[in-house]
Amino acid sequence: xxNDHVRIIEVxxxxxxxxxxxxxxxxxxxxxxxxxxxxxxxxxxxxSFVHPKWVPQMAASDQVLASILANPPKAPHDIxxxxxxxxxxxxxxxxxxxxASPSDAYPSPPPSPSQDSGPAMNTSSQDPNAMPSAxxxxxxxxxxxxxxxxxxxxxxxxxxxxxxxxxxxxKNTNCSVQESLDRFAPLMxxxxxxxxxVRAYISVALGCPFEGPDVxxxxxxxxxxxxxxMGADEISVADTTGMGxxxxxxxxxxxxxxxxxxxxxxxxxxxxxxxQALVNTIISLEHGIRTFDSAVGGLGGCPYSPGATGNVATExxxxxxxxxxxxxxxxxxxVSRIGEWITGEIGKGNSSSAGRxxxxx
Length: 361
Ligand code: HMG
Ligand code: MG
Fold this sequence. Notes:
The chain is an alpha/beta fold and 361 residues long. Helix content is 40%, strand content 13%.
């Protein structure tokens, strides 16, 4: 691990906030993304395009996206923004926001002189000459038009999500595991044709709130293989409930390896409900995993996973990784300040030990 680069996907603005019961002003959400972008974080999951009745807190994600496009957050290097969505309806809404004139979609302040918000296109991720897709149910035309609106220094990606158990799949997305896979085929085809990378989450991979801790690792491996075959660029294996233990995490990672799934195609997404997230991170590092999801301040939780608490705190993850000599590019002190600020904004305790300790030094 020493000297290795470990990629952190900051999911605070999405997973971190989605479960909060009190409505958080969209300005606070945008400010959170802006502050995070300045810390050296490379990838931010900034919102979701899900049904607003199912997850009311994410209803303003289109405004967050529009603001990022209209007034790019200042960052030390290029940032990848990810947008979570479950179906082609969510993808259509994402395309519509991408396609809309930012000034129509969100009243954004003029960019400050120090910010690079020029009209240059991000040609690395978007192909403006891409042929419109004929994929049914998805407004694929919009992407080719939208590509010219992505400012330089930004890449946008889609994250999709499904579950390793039937009970959780029904509760979270109102469909079976197989129906999820069927939904994703046209969705991923559209994303691929239009130049958007796709990461795919497999929820409840180490424990299900309805079916218990013993989720079959072979089932997880089969789903991961199907998603990769369909074109997913990365699989985020999620311990939604925090039930994962060191032995079961090891068993899952061994099973994935035996199924031919490469560690470079995997990310791990630990919730810290039982305080095992960093233990399981160490096990994952030993298995060659170099991408992890986390949320600043240890925010987070899934509305359809009763009792599940926050993601592993970004500050704690960064502290542990740096102690092992790994490089994250993230400024621990800066991210700790954001954890303190956002937990205060939403009236929650800061659950990051490393964050609190860093600030009191
Ligand atoms: P459904 O009711 O079965 O949807 O919900 P439907 O396809 O039958 O459509 C019903 C209506 O909803 C229609 O409108 C659709 O247009 C509309 P109508 O014709 O009746 O006016 N609709 C939508 N509207 C906005 N955005 C959409 C959308 N889709 C349909 N995307 C659905 C199915 C998947 C939509 C619903 O179950 C849902 O939104 N679930 C989201 C749940 C969620 O967001 N959970 C949290 C995120 S996952 C998570 O936290 C886990 C993760 O962190 C990893 C881990 O830790 O495990 C990622
Ligand atoms: Mg989660």
